[in-house]
Design a protein that fits this description.
By secondary structure, this protein is α+β, with helices and mostly antiparallel strands. Helices cover 11% and strands 17% of the residues. The chain has 2 helices and 3 strands; from the N terminus they run E-E-E-H-H. The longest helix has 7 residues. It is globular, with a radius of gyration of 14 Å.
Length: 101
């Protein structure tokens, strides 16, 4: 890749959106964000993500998050934790609680 704006794994060259075949699209539920980086394709919302962090951009019920960003930080959680509990509770974190009680 010759994109000088993409020179480390925290910078993205492009966003990739993956849609599940559902009638009503919702980010973090049926639409998931990935980054195209110099190191490959990375799911949005990883523990060290400084663009769409899980904490700031994955509580899909939080009305204080801009609707254009709500849910964008959920992809890595769904893949790595194997659940979508962020849809039911909002006390989850990479270093703490990773399932709804």
């Amino acid at each position: 890749m010759n994109n000088t704006a993409c020179d480390d794994n925290k910078k993205r060259c492009s966003d990739i959106m993956v849609y599940l075949p559902e009638k009503n699209q919702q980010v973090g539920v049926t639409l998931f964000y990935f980054y195209l980086t110099e190191k490959g394709i990375v799911p949005a919302g990883e523990k060290d993500d400084d663009i769409y962090s899980f904490e700031a951009n994955c509580n899909v019920k939080n009305s204080s998050i801009s609707t254009s960003y709500s849910g964008r930080g959920c992809t890595a959680w769904a893949i790595q934790k194997g659940n979508m509990d962020y849809l039911r509770c909002n006390d989850l974190s990479w270093d703490g609680n990773d399932k709804c009680q």
